[in-house]
Amino acid sequence: PLTEHLGRCEVVPDPSRRLIGVGLGSRRNSTFTYAFNKCMWLIWLGDLDGGTAQSGLLREAVAAAGHAWLQALVLWSESELALARGRLPEARACAGRMTDIAVAHGHEGLAASSLQQQAYLASVAGDHPAAVQALRQLAQREQAARSASLRGRVADVEQQLALRRRTQELQASEAGRAHFEQLALQDGLTGLPNRRHFELEMQTVLAGVAEHGDVACVAMIDVDRFKQINDIHSHNAGDAVLQALAMLIRRCARRQDFPARLAGDEFVVILRDTGLPAARTLARRLAQAVAEHPWGSVAPGLSVSLSLGLAEVQPGDTLHDVLSRSDRGMYADKRSKVAAR
């Protein structure tokens, strides 16, 4: 999880040398990557002041490093900040400049990310021809690429193919527009809502608790020893585990609940109209379903367990508050299992 990674990277050796220079695979590159990840993390958690300050550090780092392609990362963070502040034209302009820089420097990873950002922002703005054009550019670059796909790439490509198949529907009807927006909010591997969709849903939940006295809990779910599953049984087996877990979470969730995949092996469920006692019952039901699932059909000798953390949403909470409490609960559950072994 990104939170755990950032905690391990928190120490910067010397403030006077912070983020100076970047070299692929070097310690300096890791420091710069940490700064960018932290900036995006703060934005996604709603800490826009912190995200703005961190984006400023990134801009200083680009000037010190002297690598022009790094400006694309700064523009990415500025695009996310503008979107979070409701400045959609500015967000789209930043994403467009990010694409220009990435393409000019032949950085395929950043080019793909920037085109995806352009497509999403165009769909939010209702500019469907621009969204389709960005997806076409992305498809052309993917077809021209020779390098083999990394884990998870297949799911991304399939999602883009599905989007392209719906291009005519997007232009012809409101139904196509609705389908496009659904795909933009969906995780390609599991079919669950993605992190952006979860954040949008949580804004409604937070408002309901603060303004109307609604009751809700959030369950943070993490696969135990997932790296070992990938290392021992293969990444294909790891993907199959995530897909099976998504299915089990859907089955255990009720109609009013909202399951989503945050990233990697981390899932989350919004439990509406639910206090902590009922949330614990649902968590036990999910843990039991995972324990009883025939994981040997995925890979011989495979076993899977989960760590779960629960947090009840309180009036005045921010998204960061709720995620922090549920995250702490999940890691406490994980530590208790390690201590029991």
- By CATH, the architecture of the largest domain is named Alpha Horseshoe
The third-level CATH topology of the largest domain is Serine Threonine Protein Phosphatase 5, Tetratricopeptide repeat
Shape: globular
Side by side, the strands of the main sheet go 2-3-1-4
Total helical elements = 15
Helix/strand order:
HHHHHHHHHHHEHHEEHEH
Radius of gyration: 21 Å
- Percent of residues in helices: 55-70%
Report the β-strand fraction as a percent range: 5-15%
Mean pLDDT rating: 82
What's the count of strands? 4
Written description of the protein model:
The structure is a single chain. This protein has 341 residues and is of the alpha+beta class. It has two domains: 183 residues, Tetratricopeptide repeat domain (Serine Threonine Protein Phosphatase 5, Tetratricopeptide repeat, Alpha Horseshoe); 146 residues, Reverse transcriptase/Diguanylate cyclase domain (Alpha-Beta Plaits), CATH 3.30.70.270. Helices cover 65% and strands 8% of the residues. It contains 15 helices and four strands. The chain has a four-stranded antiparallel beta sheet, sandwiched between helices. The radius of gyration is 21 Å and the shape is globular.
